[in-house]
Amino acid sequence: MVTYKLYYFNMKGRGELIRLLFAASGQKYEDFRIEKNDWPEYKAKSPFGQAPYLEITNGKKTMILSQSVAIGRYLARKFGFAGKGDEEQAMVDMYGDQISDLLNEFAKFMMEQDETKKQEIFQKLQNEIMPFHMKFFEAKLAQSKTGFFFDSGLTWIDLYLFNLLGLLGDQRNQLFEHFKAVKNLYDKVSEHGKIKAYLETRPETAM
Amino acid sequence: EVIRLIFETAGKPYEDIRFSFEKWPEYKPTAPFGTAPFLQVTNGSETLWLSESASIARYLARKFKLAGKSDEESAIVDMYADQITDLMDQIAKIFREKDENKKKEDQQKLDNEIIPKYLERFDQRIAQSRSGYLAPSGLTWVDLYFFNFLDIQGNKTEAIFDKFANIKQLDQKVRSNPKIAAYLKRRPVTPF
């Protein structure tokens, strides 16, 4: 029997994709949330000194995986959320990379300390970067028969984008005015049975 | 380049279209996200357009059995690839930096702190795999990706190889793979 232990901070950030995948699949796991002060201890255990990382134990063998998207893709394959067939999986990966680009831009904004620079980055994000990426997502989602990125049903990138939109807070309402299919995706994921239950019970965190 | 290396290693023929910056606007409309590289895969009457180099690489690697021998190994390979992409992104960010002082500062930090820290981990992982490659089962696409990362370090590679014996060995193993050696001899010489 395989057991899973996720190591990440008490926030959504880059770890939530993994938590959402576990929720959607119904697979039990240990959701270990690292206290900031304890980080140095866990950093040493992580493959490249970063979190999230996932400890997968199968009998006597343990594997530790880091990089949220690599973890996400691995679990998605195991749980049936990777897309149907090599070609669709490649396209899922492709959109996933785009979402990662956007998440990285957003992370840059969140990490900027200088207030003036932060405002500059925010403007660029809101006026250029977000709309640029959302346009592609909107086009794909508008074509979908299921309301998810792919007609075959929910894949990890639906959860990935859902999480990113969640991190935007109320700002996402502005986006939703221009990108209806994206809004529809957000709503669909929110209402997905197992995910809805998870959303109702998960810890509330700012990020 | 990782895409080209995968085709070459697998011995699969492909059309390697190289366009100049001036010609790019002609190709841009057909690229899925308006970015390059992008790959056109035609199977009979069906065509698949893929962008994002890592996604293309992973797709081809799976087809050509260069992705690792199990889901678990493929995931580890993906993890290594994402780390290398992080480094490549940091290099690109510095390249685009307009402020000369910040550029110098960031470059120093990258060269003296960040890259060595990651290389140390990679060096350890290569030693642990026992295959001389990053994955225990042998050559996977991430070795080609890592090889390319080292290749573009230019005159910094000597210092890297002096410090990290396992990385040096991996570079040599990739370089001396007959198909790759042949490709390296004939590929166009470009600065990046």
TrEMBL record, chain A:
<feature type="domain" description="GST N-terminal">
    <location>
        <begin position="2"/>
        <end position="83"/>
    </location>
</feature>
<dbReference type="Pfam" id="PF02798">
    <property type="entry name" value="GST_N"/>
</dbReference>
<dbReference type="InterPro" id="IPR036249">
    <property type="entry name" value="Thioredoxin-like_sf"/>
</dbReference>
<feature type="domain" description="GST C-terminal">
    <location>
        <begin position="85"/>
        <end position="207"/>
    </location>
</feature>
<dbReference type="GO" id="GO:0006749">
    <property type="term" value="P:glutathione metabolic process"/>
</dbReference>
<keyword id="KW-0808">Transferase</keyword>
<dbReference type="InterPro" id="IPR040079">
    <property type="entry name" value="Glutathione_S-Trfase"/>
</dbReference>
<dbReference type="InterPro" id="IPR050213">
    <property type="entry name" value="GST_superfamily"/>
</dbReference>
<dbReference type="GO" id="GO:0004364">
    <property type="term" value="F:glutathione transferase activity"/>
</dbReference>
<dbReference type="InterPro" id="IPR010987">
    <property type="entry name" value="Glutathione-S-Trfase_C-like"/>
</dbReference>
<comment type="function">
    <text>S-crystallins are structural components of squids and octopi eye lens. Contains relatively little if any GST activity.</text>
</comment>
<dbReference type="InterPro" id="IPR004046">
    <property type="entry name" value="GST_C"/>
</dbReference>
<dbReference type="InterPro" id="IPR004045">
    <property type="entry name" value="Glutathione_S-Trfase_N"/>
</dbReference>
<protein>
    <submittedName>
        <fullName>Glutathione S-transferase S3</fullName>
    </submittedName>
</protein>
<dbReference type="InterPro" id="IPR036282">
    <property type="entry name" value="Glutathione-S-Trfase_C_sf"/>
</dbReference>
<dbReference type="Pfam" id="PF14497">
    <property type="entry name" value="GST_C_3"/>
</dbReference>
UniProtKB/TrEMBL annotation, chain B:
<dbReference type="Pfam" id="PF13409">
    <property type="entry name" value="GST_N_2"/>
</dbReference>
<keyword id="KW-0808">Transferase</keyword>
<dbReference type="Pfam" id="PF14497">
    <property type="entry name" value="GST_C_3"/>
</dbReference>
<dbReference type="InterPro" id="IPR004046">
    <property type="entry name" value="GST_C"/>
</dbReference>
<feature type="domain" description="GST C-terminal">
    <location>
        <begin position="70"/>
        <end position="192"/>
    </location>
</feature>
<dbReference type="InterPro" id="IPR010987">
    <property type="entry name" value="Glutathione-S-Trfase_C-like"/>
</dbReference>
<dbReference type="InterPro" id="IPR050213">
    <property type="entry name" value="GST_superfamily"/>
</dbReference>
<dbReference type="GO" id="GO:0004364">
    <property type="term" value="F:glutathione transferase activity"/>
</dbReference>
<dbReference type="InterPro" id="IPR040079">
    <property type="entry name" value="Glutathione_S-Trfase"/>
</dbReference>
<dbReference type="InterPro" id="IPR004045">
    <property type="entry name" value="Glutathione_S-Trfase_N"/>
</dbReference>
<protein>
    <submittedName>
        <fullName>Glutathione S-transferase-like</fullName>
    </submittedName>
</protein>
<feature type="domain" description="GST N-terminal">
    <location>
        <begin position="1"/>
        <end position="68"/>
    </location>
</feature>
<dbReference type="GO" id="GO:0006749">
    <property type="term" value="P:glutathione metabolic process"/>
</dbReference>
<dbReference type="InterPro" id="IPR036249">
    <property type="entry name" value="Thioredoxin-like_sf"/>
</dbReference>
<dbReference type="InterPro" id="IPR036282">
    <property type="entry name" value="Glutathione-S-Trfase_C_sf"/>
</dbReference>
